[in-house]
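Lab channel / #folding
Pinned by the channel admin:
"Please post every new chain as: sequence first, then the structure tokens as a reply. Keep commentary short and put observations after the output so the thread stays searchable."

First post following the new format, from NK:
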Amino acid sequence: MKLELREITKQFPGVLANDRVSISVDRGEVLGLLGENGAGKSTLMNILSGLYRPDSGQVLIDGVQVHFKDPAEAIAAGIGMIHQHFMLVPVFDVVEAIALGAETSHGPLGTFDKSAARARIDVLAKEYGLHVDLDARIEDLPVGVRQRVEILKALYRKSDILVLDEPSAVLTPQETEELFQIIRSLAKAGTSIIFITHKLHEVLEVADRITVLRRGQVAGNTTPKATNDEHLAEMMVGRDVQLTVARGKSKPARNVLHVANLSVRDERGRLAVDGVDLDVRAGEIVAIAGVQGNGQTELVEALTGLRTVEAGSASLDGEPLDLGSPRKIADAGVAHIPEDRNRDGMIKGMTIAENLMMNAYHRAPFSKNGRLDLQAISANASRAIDDFDVRTPSAQAFIGTLSGGNQQKVIVAREFSRDVKLVIAAQPTRGLDVGSIEYIHKKIVERRDAGAAVLIVSTELDEVMALGDRIAVMYQGRLMGILEGAEATRERIGLLMGGVS
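Reply from TO:
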């Protein structure tokens, strides 16, 4: 099938999400849809899948205009969506998860004909090389295999157009390469594929054509042969961007952070961090890699006082850290850039100036004898806004009115505008445009070079390899190994991410 979206416009209160966007994908073609978070990719795909209706514009399949009232009509028209977060029932087996909502029935009572569904799924799996144990339960499958189940689920519904939304976000490099092979085989069989991503090297590897979105508009169309990383980044941001992190060789000194046999449970009471030992030295960046959900979040929350520790301990410069108190940890000289800036990093209904002193409002110069010094707060805000290039009309603007990149700059400014011994940064560039990523990376390296110990957690392998002087890999709550940054390769890290020591 050939798909066309012509002049699609969609507006929400205060936001023009799609502004006369036109894209097309031919039968058997892979279209890479590239853009940063907020560029309009998800809105466009929600229109295509029947979740939203456009304010204006047309959706055409094989030249015929279609109107989708709901996702069921989009599925019936041959459109399959494979979301970044899988839509599978954990306690179902593979056949049940794939057939759910599209069951074939038999007998007078219309009972589910599981054997017929299984036979059809088996044919599809063999035809497209999607090898899956059909009797396995979803919750027991690795994420890479779950993604194959999602693809089979779409093919089972006779989807001729597949939309994959950030499909590599939860995969190891090896699983990502397997996914690319599957995409190529699907396209060769005639399936039209839209591959949505913000990762430049992926779209160059797998796409036949590339469309770049920026701020709700099409910034340009190209092909992998006619472009490169730098050109795509410029199209995404609108200016030249330095993609490599400029940093000299690390000069590690004394041991600053020492973590011993740390164990932490998650919200469901399961052991998420299992006996972790880790050291981070002054003047070095230790980057923790791993697929999301392998204990990285719980490790950071424990080290910053946001989660109760089951067992183990941590010390800073030889002094025990009170892991039950975020304030004591911050006062001891630990800077924290949280994974979720909206939940843990800022208060949207407060001003930029107020957010910039939230971790030190109880100390001089911001307060004296229990009263806030508004002049000191204002002076600190002006200095931080200038030093960290925060784009805002005023320090008195609410932080919630800023872009994601500028909100992150405020958080980084607050944490880096004081003397700290240790920086803990979780997903420090998540959801940011390429230009903001470049800036945040520069500031992190500056802290390292100033003598701080830096611990970074990131699911972005490119970020881990660009910043890490040493790279530790977590899998199912344990550290699988620590590699020297200069010796680390995507393949070695990927194996460790998959649990292969």
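NK: The mean pLDDT is 90.
TO: also worth noting, Residues 5 and 497 are 38 Å apart (CA to CA).
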